[in-house]
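REQUEST ID: PR-0412
SUBMITTED BY: lab tech R.K.
PRIORITY: routine
TASK: structure prediction, single protein chain
INPUT:
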Amino acid sequence: MRTRLSLSAVALALAAGGTPALAQSMDHSAHSEHSVSTPMDHTEQGMNHAEHMAAMNDDVAGAEAILTSYRDALTSRDAEAMAALFAQESFIYENGKAEGSFTHYMEHHLGPELDAITSFTFGEPTLAVTRMGHMAYGRETYTYRIELADGRVIDREGVATSVLAHDADGWKIVQYHSSSRAPRNN
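STATUS: complete
OUTPUT:
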């Protein structure tokens, strides 16, 4: 009965030309300085909603650059450059294992491996980033080849998903999840 009354109230409000209170209070501007209950007036800033959304979507290039920089830092085995791309409160998942923060991952997993790598190359990378306000998520596919000091060679197909956050300092990776497998023989 309660659900029927709630749905009836929404239907009556819509039929009367009204908009449910929840829809009225939603702020689609994605600006943290505006509260959810106060709609943003883009004309105050000299831009309309379409221009604002276009500007937000254009900024995915910054998030894409962070993910590309991470791949570049891996190939050059530059631990300092990699660390600069991650938020302090980050989470890394690799091949079904929670690795903790990037700092922990570097100290206990990736860092020791970097010394054993003589060559690290990526092939066929794809990258797509979608921005949602001050957050973005990335989807990547790639192949990679690692040559080790002991002569072993590792060829893999990989995928990664990432979540990035944007603040006054720019984009940072807050969560990174990658997995790989041996290439399939076609």
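NOTES: DSSP finds six helices and six strands in the chain.
REVIEWED BY: pending
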